[in-house]
Amino acid sequence: MASLEILDGPDAGQKFQIDNGRLVLGRGHDCDIRLTESSISRHHAAIEFVDGIWRIEDLGSQNGVFVDSKRVQKAELTHKTRFQLGSVPISFDADLSETDLSVTAAAAETPPEGPAIPTVVGVTAPVDKTSAPATVSGEMPSEGTIRDIREMSEVYPMIEKEFGQMIIGQRAVLEQLLIAIAAGGHCLMVGLPGLAKTLMISTLARILRLKFKRIQFTPDLMPSDIIGTDVLEVNETTGEKSFRFIKGPIFTNMLLADEINRTPPKTQAALLESMQERQVTVANHVFPLPPPFFVLATQNPLEQEGTYPLPEAQLDRFMFNIVVDYPEADEEEEIVATTTGKQDVDIQEVLTAQDLLRLQDTVRELPVSPHVVKYATRITRATRPKSENVPQFIQDHVFCGAGPRAAQFLILGAKARAVIHGRLNVSCEDVRELALPVFRHRIFTNFTADSEGITPDDLVRQLLIAVPEPDQRDY
């Protein structure tokens, strides 16, 4: 005999008396012990009594099984063990000493009216083969991290709602912007004029309560116009002269570099230190930038006369290259109808700068399985034409592939995507969803690809088909 008690979540307080056999725990109606918390998979885990030992097994759950703060595929349950399914902590006692257990697994939703408490006999349930396998162990997130991730599942729809008051459609762009902000990265937005790129960024700054500044990049813009300059001051009383640094518009939380390719490389380089080090160096003095700090740059893909292509070193510092496309037909009709009349929109602040800093810490603290890291690294290496086992279409059409920073941003972005959607598990699907914005400005095509009209996006889509996810043989 053994007992099991749910310690947190919507099923908190429920107790179960279990006997020999195999019991399946999950959200499915056919499970022996049904849990209704959203982080629980349909068939999450199984508990089994074999040869005098209780064991727990992960049935390919999305958010994992944790024993003693370690993610496991299989583990023994000793006399008194506390384990966790997804975000639900559960207490297990192999020695049943209490007799007032309130419900049975067969009647988890409707507690029995009589005093009798029947024993639960295990019944094997089918395993959900559609869930991602959790075969690699990793550390369990802390309780504070789990709480913050749960809150984000409620905050993200609020941000979407406020954003939708000003911007119609473009939800994929919003998600990618939020992922980059949660990961502490910068974005390059490429789109035609009139697609509300500037309005998107200024609206997001209002929702997130961030200081926002916009710089219009022009051919005559100088580095001092961005970072600031020293001015000579004279003390009228003593006549003493001294230099005082006047900060430029880069000292903000969210900087919009509008049409960044219209300024010469010398001025573009003024952003390199600030994007990487979050600081500005002037006359041997270092001035830290206020956290959080993001650069969101825009670029017109059509009008290239009089422009200066961004150097590869600066392109690589942008986490995402986000393509802003035309709206759908119904969205465009709504845009025209709403923007040609009188508008009175009240944007509510959803998060603050301190909330974003805490969100960035949460993203960093979220563990990721080694097989997801292996998948991100495998895709990145497959973009390089001189690497081993590279697909032929990469060798034929790529001059230079992505560096290690691409794999870093894939994992950071995948973790941030999981967090803003309130998930504790980072999957290979998160990596695939972010492959295009991460790789499209890091893959440089050759003349053959250009002459055939093959773009980096086309190559990335082929790579996602050609590069398989790691399986059991990779461990």
- Net shape: globular
Q: What would you call the structural class?
A: alpha+beta
Relative helix content: 25-40%
How many beta-strand runs? Answer: 22
Main beta-sheet annotation: 6 strands, antiparallel
Unreliably modeled segments: 96-138
Cα(first) to Cα(last) distance is 36 Å
Mean pLDDT: 81
Major β-sheet strand ordering: 2-1-11-10-7-8
Structure annotation, total helices: 16
β-strand amount: 15-25%
Tell me the Rg in angstroms: 27 Å
Q: Could you give the topology of this structure?
A:
Elements lengths: L1 E5 L8 E4 L3 E5 L6 E2 L10 E6 L2 E6 L6 E3 L2 E3 L1 E4 L2 E6 L2 E6 L49 H24 L4 H13 L3 E5 L5 H11 L4 E5 L7 H4 E7 L6 E7 L6 E5 L6 H4 L3 H6 L1 E4 L2 E4 L5 E6 L12 H4 L4 E5 L4 H11 L13 H13 L4 H12 L10 H6 E3 L3 H17 L7 H6 L1 H5 L4 E2 L1 H5 L4 H11 L9
Parallel strand pairs: 3-4, 12-19, 12-20, 13-16, 16-19
Antiparallel strand pairs: 1-2, 1-11, 3-5, 5-6, 6-9, 7-8, 7-10, 10-11, 14-15, 17-18, 21-22
Helix pairs in contact: 1-3, 2-12, 9-12, 10-12
